Amino acid sequence: MTSPVRVLLADDQTLVRAAFAMLVDSAPDMEVVGQAGTGRAAVDLARSERADLVVMDIRMPDLDGIEATRLLAADEDLAGVKVLMLTTYDTDEHVVDALRAGASGFLVKDTKPAELLDAIRTVAAGDSLLSPGPTARLIARVLRAPDTGVPVAGGPDGLSERERQVLRLVARGLNNQEVADTLGLSPLTAKTHVSRIMGKLGARDRAQLVIIAYESGLVAPGSVVSP
Known about the structure:
By secondary structure, the chain is α/β, with parallel strands linked by helices.
């Protein structure tokens, strides 16, 4: 039997944390292992409770969610911890900064309860997740103001043609099954390609692959999804 996803909730509003805790604990495949009211406390609890995933509010006292995420991503002992950023605000600055800090997902707080649980499952499984609105603004912003926050070892030029095809599709939001179907590959082969691309580009997860693809010009906003 698969162990439940160990979830840490970080939000400066006690009632919000309590509501999220009831929701998460109602799901049989996940459990709340801690609650934090500040970014600093979230980092400490992630270490002590060995959480699998942190639902992180962006605006918190002491240390905001983005800085807390950056600390988690920089800690080798917490390499497997995923961060799902949850906030009232969905401005492009928040999306870009959160993803570059190491977040694997981004949702606004008016997300429906079932969607939040699905988002936790998606991110915990190793996939990235972005709200549709913020995704469009993310693409526009990274093209306006490129940033070197995502480490790139050689850039897409160092990829094979097949890997470039896969990266284009990942940047468009396709999952491994959809990439496989589009390119006539097995799901396992598609997954292997994605893993190798992440290794070559120094990307922490699929969310950072999206940034790399757009910043490098491999994918342009508004273009048609094609291999």
